[in-house]
Amino acid sequence: MANTYTWESLNGVCESPIICFAKASEATRKALSLMDRSNEAIPFIKKGFLLNPFPLHWYYSTLGRAYADSGQYDKAIKAL
Hints:
By secondary structure, the chain is mostly helical. It is 75% helix and 0% strand.
């Protein structure tokens, strides 16, 4: 999500660059607090897909890795 907010700010589609960078910082803080708790990170990763209508390839690998790390191997395969 942090990358989505940064992208929006840099491409002029954000309501305010300051607000988007604040949101990016908050998303990064949340992501770091969820390290080693992949099952809790999955909803945040999915929200990134909703915020960006054209998700980059690494969105899928991040989601797949979170699923794999949380033992949800069938979902990991589909995401990757």
